[in-house]
Amino acid sequence: MVKSSSLSEIKSENAKITFPYLPVAVFVGGTSGIGRGIAEAFARYTKGNAHIILVGRNHAAAESIIASFPHPTSLAAKHEFIQCDVTLLKNVRQTTSEILARHYKINFLVLSPGVLTFTKENTEDGIDRSAALMYYSRWKFIYDLAPALTKAREDNEDAKVLSVLSAGNGVKINLDDLELKKASAITRGRSLMSYNDIMMDGFAFHFPSISFIHCYPGWVRTPIGSDSDSLIMRTAYFLSNSPFSPLSYLPMSLEDCGEHQLYGILYTASTPGVWRIGKYGNDIGKQGYYGDDNARDTLWQHTLEATVSK
Predict the structure, then answer these.
(1) InterPro entries, alphabetically (predicted)?
(2) How confident is the model at residue 220 (pLDDT cuts 50, 70, 90)?
(3) Is the pLDDT of residue 223 over 80?
(4) CATH number belonging to the domain at 7-217+252-303, selected among 3.30.1450.10, 2.40.50.140, 3.20.20.70, 3.40.50.720
């Protein structure tokens, strides 16, 4: 486990970012929350000189975010939005096909869609909505875009994937109930955290030239939950964001989170393979890890069967 750096040190390191090529970065869930924070930090430090693709549902939010990016000096740089409801796997397939038609190489893929709900609701794919957002859609994005990430590495460029959820806070998964049909809401949520850990192990096993990262960003002030119908989610939003909340001083700002997680992507995950990083972009090693080779292979096969034909 590596000690975290201070925010000022992290900003200083992020400011040194340079690429000998025009990087391609895809942010799924990049129109709000932590994904937005990382996308904005990436745009800021590349001075807009990158292909940046935001994937999400909110077109107006995406246009506003893109308009705030620094104007690139490179005529080849593009900042794009692809509208996609990632709860449906057919939408993910359509979106990845569109991305691959535009970009044969991808350097950075950041996945942060979704928030755990406490009610069970299946999508038309027959998958629980929380599980679709927090695991299955992420797996399919990585699987579909892996050839473009591999191509980037073949050309000696960065190829890194970050899934934003809760590394280090999972539980031992039930290999006899991978669809989580018997799990309580709390167990379901913590199992999906472990699924993200084990997912990254599976991809690193099958695509060893790429860096696969699962992060725990901690408690971050985001707008998620502000317009929810759930009293629990609205209460969580208040506790994280209201200046009148006794906990308002605790969460990290979106901008600071973006700085820390970008640092984790660029510097902490320094080699291909599996990485798990904490709220400061620091390496947390195997802390709170519940996977093994059997879980990796069993979950991989289950997910392959559940997603590839969709």
Answers:
(1) NAD(P)-bd_dom_sf, SDR_fam, Sec_Metab_Biosynth_Oxidored
(2) confident
(3) no
(4) 3.40.50.720
